[in-house]
Amino acid sequence: MISTIQNDAKLNSLRAYINSHKEMTRNDSLLIRVLQKAQEIIGYLPPEIMNFIAQEMSIPRAQVWGVATFYHYFFLKPVGKYIISVCMGTACYLKGAEKILKAFKEKLNINIGETTDDKLFTLIEARCLGACGLAPAVSINGTIYGQLDEKKAYNIIKKYINQSK
Amino acid sequence: MDHSVTPQYKIILCWGSSCQKLSSKSILDRIHQKIDELKMGNNVDIILSGCLGMCSKGPILIINPGYYIYGKITPEIVGEIIEKHINQNKATAAYLIEEDHLFNRFYRIFGDVKFYGRQMRIALRNCGIIDPESIDDYLSVRGYESLAKSLALFTPNQVINEIKASGLRGRGGAGFPTGYKWELTAQEKSSEKFIICNADEGDPGAFMDRNAIESDPHTIIEGMIIGAYAVGAQNGIIYTRAEYPLAIDRLHIAINQAKEHGFLGNNILGTNFSFNIEIRQGAGAFICGEETALIHSLEGKRGVPRTRPPYPATKGLFNKPTVVNNVETWANIPVIIQEGAAWFSSIGTKNSKGTKVFAVAGSVINTGLVEVPMGTTLKEIIFDICGGLPDNKTLKAVQIGGPSGGCLTKDHLDIQVDYESFAEIGTIMGSGGMIVIDNKSCMVKLARFFLEFSQSQSCGKCTPCREGTKRMLEILERITTGNGKPEDIQKLLRLGNTIKKTALCGLGKSAPNPVISTITHFRNEYEEHINEKKCATNDCSALIVYEINDACTGCSACIRICPTKAISGIKKNKHQINQNLCIKCGDCFDICAFKGITRR
Amino acid sequence: MLNPLDIIKKKRAEAINRIIGKGYFSTIRVYVGMASCEIAAGSKEVMAVFEKAIKQGLNDVYLSQKGCSGRCNLEPTVEVVEENKIPVKYGLVNKDRAKTIIDKHIKKGQVIEEWTIQ
Ligand SMILES: Cc1cc2nc3c(=O)[nH]c(=O)nc-3n(C[C@H](O)[C@H](O)[C@H](O)COP(=O)(O)O)c2cc1C
Ligand code: FES
Question: Most CB atoms closer than 10 Å: which of A74, B27, B574, C116?
Answer without folding.
Answer: B27
